[in-house]
Amino acid sequence: MEVKKVEKQRNYSLDLLRVIAILMIIIFHICYKALIFNNLSEFNKLIFAFLLHFGEIGVNLFMLITGFFLYKSNSSKTTKIIRLIYDIWFYFILNIILCAIVKGGYVVTLSTFFPTSLGYFWYVTCYICILIFSPYLNLLIKNLEQKDYRRLLIISLIILSVIPTISGLAVASVENGPVYSRFIWLIFMYFLGAYISKYQESDRLLKNDREFFIKLNIFSSFLAIIFIFIFKYLSFSFMPKVPMFYMWPPNSIVVFLMSVSLFIIFVKTNLTKKTKVIKFIEKISQHTLGIYLLHDAPYNYLILADCFIWFQGFSTSKNLVFLIALITILVFAVSLIVSIIKKFTADRLYQVIFDKIEQKLKKSLNSSHL
């Protein structure tokens, strides 16, 4: 009797989530880098404080997606790491060229030669390090019993999120203490994404339906709004003035709940039929790294200085939210176009050079074994 192998259909909902995550990050950067909080009207300060949460939710989502898929992989990540370093250098050099054109020059310093290790694109630097460590992280994931794995996640959440969220009130920052760092937090997100992937059908909490996590996401979003109002008016002599956007960092318990609930909503959203819209979303999702690297390049603040000044003129305008949405779409579209052009030009050249080097290395290795 012939046994037919049933292939699991791909769920394209996480491709859509990648696109949503990069849009959230763009919104965050527009607010964080182009607006001055103290110059905003009272209403726009509330909007600003809420939108700041978006960037760190986006960061958490990308690492949850990485853990969700990557923990199953045993292959070497060398090729992917080299490609990421190439991507960083491409957009970094492009950013320098644009800066030199707009500002009439660029001064080369020692830091120019270390865009990856100095964290000019901090998330990608952390991502590369996690790729390097991933074979060992995956080994731990595969050998942990579910009970021990869950306990590890709970302990990590308490140390990295719950305690800093509470103790941070003393220093007006959730990102505090000698243990926490963004790299450690992203490793935790990686482990959590892998756990959701591995135990989504057996964990008691994860077995809840999609509606449960929609309600959790709405609740955590309201929680973020409530804390914005609390910290707007809360003031005690024994503690520093806590900003309205206190809960915006990636490890705050509020952003954690918003991120994880949104992620699970999309995991439980079944998009398996490859329609024209889904094909379009899938293609766009392949460019999220390029969109991130272009729109968050380190010298954009110099290149776009006049645009920033123009944008700050709307600090008290009732149309600020509409303008943020419009600029987000514009930044996304321009970055996407540049990434597509790169794919059909520089990337093809890179692949030809890389393949030739790889072939020569293989030939030299084979000849040395003879």
TrEMBL record:
It is an enzyme of class 2 (transferase). It comes from the Bacteria. It is found in: Cell membrane. Its main location: membrane. The keyword Transmembrane helix applies. It holds the Pfam family Acyl_transf_3. This is O-acetyltransferase WecH. It comes from Candidatus Nanosyncoccus nanoralicus. The gene is wecH.
